[in-house]
Amino acid sequence: MPPPVPSQQQIRFTQTADGVRLAFSVAGLGEPVLIKAATWLSHLEADWDSPVWRGLLRALAERTRLVRYDERGCGWSDWDVASLGFDDWVDDLECVVDAVGAPERFALLGISQGAAVAVAYAVRHPERVSHLVLHGGYARGRLVRADSPQARDEAEMMCRLAELGWGKQDPSFRQFFTTQFIPGGTPEQHAWFNEMERLSTSPANAARFMRVFAGIDVQALLPQVRCPTLVLHSRHDVRVPLEEGRLLATQIPGAQFVVIESGNHLLLETEPGWQAWWQAVDAFLPARPGQGSGAVDFGGLSPRQREVLELMAQGRDNAQIAAALGLSEKTVRNQITAIFDKIGADNRARAIVRARDAGFGRG
Fold this sequence. Notes:
By secondary structure, the protein is α/β, with parallel strands linked by helices. It contains 15 helices and 8 strands. An 8-stranded mixed β-sheet has the order 1-2-4-3-5-6-7-8, with helices on both faces. It is globular, with a radius of gyration of 21 Å.
């Protein structure tokens, strides 16, 4: 049985090197630890019981010890900040990891622009991240992937919409963004999200956020990710196109790619795609203590299988393993199937995690 979830999350504060106070929360008990890279439009207190985030947060807190934080400029964290840029967000994640006393290795979740932050952290600290989950993410911001003057104009128009209408009582300006984030939401969910946009940050900060989002480019980092990675994306996401999720999955070595039948950028527990999303994430995350069949015996592997497993644990794909060992890709696939049987792994990600825990992949 999973450990009980505390009725209330615990909210605390820490301070960054440049003096910004960050709010972070812990919910759930025990292991594994899952840290969610911050996204904008967050408010630790309001999100916890909201009709948009409640289902996802409660499910994760039952499965893991869930750590979240409001990024600088949002929620309970400081709004009046001199610097608000991508490197600041990666530094802030480092700060929260230290403040919460995270274990040596933990799982990392990145949603929307949080995916790029999570990728950057995983590359900066490969020894800390055991699993990487990315949903609705992108490596290229709107201006980076823009292929026409119209696309660039659209990116700037969204920033101007935020500056002009974000703080008004009339929600019509904010409804534009709500419709992009959760077009399939209920009237209650739309009303809550409209209000959350106003409460979570200022109009000026909203425009600052979007201008930084538009310039995000972590494409060069993707091949450097070394941990097992799960990429999920809604098929009809209008906020971040499916092709951006595909780019993440094709450029991160060995990443799994799961397409969810949904039009929502933020997945809702009330929609059909939620169960598929949850099953994929639940199967991918590290097992809870006491789960599984105990210690893994690697003694039955042949010398060749140990060579293959070593390269798998380094993040190599089948073609790279074949080239390194002078084998055909078919032979590599056969060896990997045999490895799965011998170490009791049902997929590549679990095999890599078990191998790294046993010391493979460090050569």
